[in-house]
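Hey all, sorry for the wall of text incoming. These are the two entities for the joint prediction.
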Amino acid sequence: MKASVIIFPGTNREHDVADVLESVSGRKPQFVWHSETQVPPTDLIVLPGGFSYGDYLRCGAMAARSPIMRDVIAKAKAGTPVLGICNGFQILCESGLLPGVLMRNASLKFVCKEVWLRIEQPDTIFTSRFKRGEVMPAIAAHAEGNYFADADTLDRLESEGRVVFRYADPQGNVTPEANPNGSQRSIAGICDERRRVLGLMPHPENASDPLLGPTGGRRLFESLVDNLVGAA
Amino acid sequence: MKARIIITLKNGVLDPQGKAIENAVAALGIGGVQSVRQGKFIEVELAASSQAEARETVERMCRELLANTVIENYRYEIEG
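and here's what came out:
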């Protein structure tokens, strides 16, 4: 699996995700700078976490309009899988590849802690190693992760099975206490119509190595290898 | 020409920063405040030669970058 990790000024989690991608696939991902106009041929595009453009104007707003994103959007529309984590999720929403927006956390505080995500949709290339209702650990590290969309959009996401992750307790119960940021309907991650573009706020790549703690996030990347190796 | 753009959160969109300001105002003992909503104010110098041209530029800026119309409304005035 040949993955491409896009780097914007202010991105800071590119090595975290590249490390896990290399570990599961045996191939070093290529880094692509935001001012490039083409992503080289690739099986997977990753928009990593960080603070692109210093979060100026709105999180992800500037990055979503940078030169490389025109090609990312074109490739996503042509079927190339895209994974956006944290700031990457914000960029996907700002670019229109995913609906809704990530607002300031309801608590107004930066949230930095381990969270549990209930798998709502195992039928994606990102979650095929999970069963519905299972929980995956991940590390939340954001101040703007409060998912918002109008009621019609939320209903559409639910009815189309596009809510992939919800914040839950370690037993998989979706409770208000388990929601770290005020996200509507406890949504932690969603995908596009074809289930090939996924955005999520917490970091599975930081829950993938025993050195850092929980390792259950690794299965997301292993799912990608299962589904994408030999794809291109 | 100069444009003054005001971006506000749509009604019904939760504004935790506005709420925090509301609480701080109350903590200062300033009464008579019913609610606070926070937004953005952006000033732009334009090279446009007509009002119509200026409006077109500002309209595009707002729609394509400055406001996220999922949660925000924008309005502007142009002078000069």
